[in-house]
Amino acid sequence: MRTISASLQTEIDAGRIAKFVRVVPVNEPVFGVTNHNKPITADGLTYTPAPALAGGALRQGLGVTVDNQKLSTGWLEAQEADLLAGVYDDAYLEGGIVGYAMAVPERLITFAGDMGKLGWNRDGIEVEALDPMRALGVPLGRTVGPGCPVVLGSQGTGQCNVDLSLYEVSVTVTGIGSNPRLVFSDSGLSEADDWFADGEFTWDTGDNAGDIATIELYASNQFTLQLPARQAVQVGDTGTATPGCDRTAGAGGCQKFNNRDNYQGIGIWLREEVDIQ
Predict the structure, then answer these.
(1) Under DSSP, is residue 16 helix (H, G, I), strand (E, B) or coil?
(2) Which residues 6+ apart lie within 8 Å of 270 measured at CB?
(3) Residues lower than pLDDT 50 in the chain
(4) Number of domains the chain contains
(5) Which domain holds residue 92?
(6) Model pTM score
(7) What is the pLDDT of residues 59-93, one digit of tens each?
């Protein structure tokens, strides 16, 4: 049960409250935003106005209830590049209401959790705030399903054990698609369509140097990234493309990497048992 001071209750009854969100990134300074039209300083932190901030009631249930929230906001729009680079991955969030008219503004935290999936809508950035209770629903130990559960290129007992350095391909951009942050090509490549799908692209030179992106599609020497690059890709930029794995024992998975012996999915085990019988 939450304890609300009499002075804050008076502000709530009078409607003199605003929403707030406090963000604690892993390696960046803490900051806060509010949907009030003026900055509010509470508990040592100044919350800057973000009129587009919206997020339902920002409440958290009791017991083992999981109450994930979605915050639609424009407060991170100017830092889109940081979002794409993962600056806010695993950040901690607090949300609730604050009495903005009080001599010493008081907060009431009604939700706390971790920053989850990020997306875009017409208001700017849409953030999913994940309830800590979700951890109770995560399976413990190793699970086995039809697909291979291990990470491509992981090393060790029971891992993939593919040496990805043997499959890396140097890329020099020779053409740009309609979206210069998503689509580009290298006319000198000879790999078949889908070879790099679900793989990784590491930018070696250009404005995106050092960034790593997931490859969504590859066809006719053209790459399409899963998320936009931080900066527009330019002809002459170079990078390294690594093919992806579809986590099957077939042509898009173990056959592609000649790695059938390390397949960790259940499908191949069942087939081998049938063959033995």
Answers:
(1) coil
(2) none
(3) 55-68, 77-78, 268-277
(4) 2
(5) 6-137
(6) 0.54
(7) 444 443 444 455 555 555 445 666 666 777 778 88
